[in-house]
Structures are given as structure tokens and as C-alpha cells.
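User: You have something folded?
Assistant:
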Amino acid sequence: MINQDQRTRIIRQFNSFSNRYDQDNYLCGLITVSNVQRRRPRVGEENAKLHNKSYSYKIGMFADDTYVVPVCRKAFISLHGITGRRLQFLQKSLTEHGVVQKDERGKHVKSKLSDQTTDLMYKQSNTLKEIYDKKCHYNLHESQKIYLSDELNLS
């Protein structure tokens, strides 16, 4: 089995990677994807939620003698200090693409409207307010808000 010193080495090695993408690549190297060999659904085939892939996990022991130890899913998660959701993402990525996908969160660029477009929007809004000016019937004296008429719609 895996002793405490080996556990410490595994987590230290895993945390030594510079970024999450490198960690995910390392983890994907320890996951083997295979097709399901046998199906034994407890309900009918049409009602069963069948899986197409099976996953096996291993831990690489890199010390004086290098060897690989097969482990269960819970041990794999525990030894690397990851969540089940992260492992699920890696499994999906391996199944669909064969390699881990780079995390694209926070990458989209916000496009700024030109000053001319912004001015046109304000002019249109002011024109509509002048034509269809309507006061709110709640707190008439306290509110400075002006509401457009409910008759004004796309149709």
C-alpha cells in the first residue's frame, strides 16, 4: 500500500507544477480510458443510463525504483487533492478530445461601443422620453424616473 511518506511525495510533486494545465496533463497521463466490456442494467435497456467508457486510475511512484500502482477513483482524488468535479472534467475531456482541453475561462474580450454609437443610443432614448413621457404612478413626488409608455413595443 501507499505509506504517509509516499503520499506526501505524490501531493508535493503534483503541487510543484506551475499551472493548472500542466497538472491536468499529468493527471490525464495517469487515467486510462477504455470501452465498457459488459452491460448489466437492472432496468430495461431503453430506461437505463448506460455509460460508454470506463476509467482506470494509477499512481506513479517516482523514487529509487519507479513503479505504477493501480488505485480506485476515491484514492486517486484523495492522493492528488482534487475534487470529483475536476476529475469529471478530465474524464469528459479525454473521452471527447483525447487530450485535456485548455481552460478558456476569463479569455473573452469585451468589445467597446464607439462613441458615435453611444451618442446615437442616448439621442434615441431622449427622443422616446420626449414623445412617450410617462410618470410612474407609485411615489409620484419622490421619483425622478421617467418611464416609457407600455404602448411602445416592437410590434
User: Anything to note?
Assistant: The chain has two domains: 4-97, 115-148. The first strand starts at residue 31 and ends at 35. Residues 24 and 92 are 12 Å apart (CA to CA). The mean pLDDT is 81.
